Amino acid sequence: MEEKIAIRSLLALAQTVRLRAFRALVVAGTGGMTPGALTQALDVPATSLSFHLKELANAGLVSQERQGRNLIYRAAFDQMNGLMAYLTENCCGGGSCAVVDGPSACGC
Q1: For the chain, which terminus, N or C, has the lower number of CB atoms within 10 Å?
Q2: 3-94: CATH number
Q3: Degrees (nearest 5) of the Cα angle 89, 91, 96?
Q4: Measured in whole angstroms, how far is the alpha carbon of residue 24 from the centre of its chain?
């Protein structure tokens, strides 16, 4: 992943509603969610959610697909995994890391 793409992704996630929306889509998995379901889950106005989903899509973190009259939003797992790989590429100076106290802790 290029640095500028990582920065764009991180900037998109550096806002409360966008981060919450992205996390909800990750939990939803490949089935995704409609904007209406996201609006209810996040308790945000539809117009606000639309803006935030557009920002996430511009960063490549979500995709949208039309199914009949509905839009389905999904987390872009390839982009998310690429960002995680970019952030941890040189974890522990390239040595192996042991997980300590949970799945996100690096045992360097």
Answers
A1: C
A2: 1.10.10.10
A3: 110
A4: 9
Beta bridge partners of residue 74, listed in sequence order: 63
Q: How far apart are CA 79 and CA 94, in angstroms?
A: 22
Give the type of residue at 91.
Answer: C
Percentage of residues in the chain having pLDDT higher than 90: 77
CA distance 44 to 52: 10
- Domain ranges within the chain, ordered by starting residue: 3-94
Q: How far apart are CA 105 and CA 81, in angstroms?
A: 17
Q: Which bin fits 73, alpha (ψ -120 to 50), beta or left (φ > 0)?
A: beta
Lookup result for tokens 């522990």: 92
Of 108 and 41, the structure prediction assigns the larger pLDDT to 41
Q: Which of 82, 7, 18 is nearest to 49 (CA)?
A: 18
What is the pTM assigned to this prediction? 0.83
What are the distances in angstroms from CA 14 to CA 24, 36, 69?
15, 23, 31
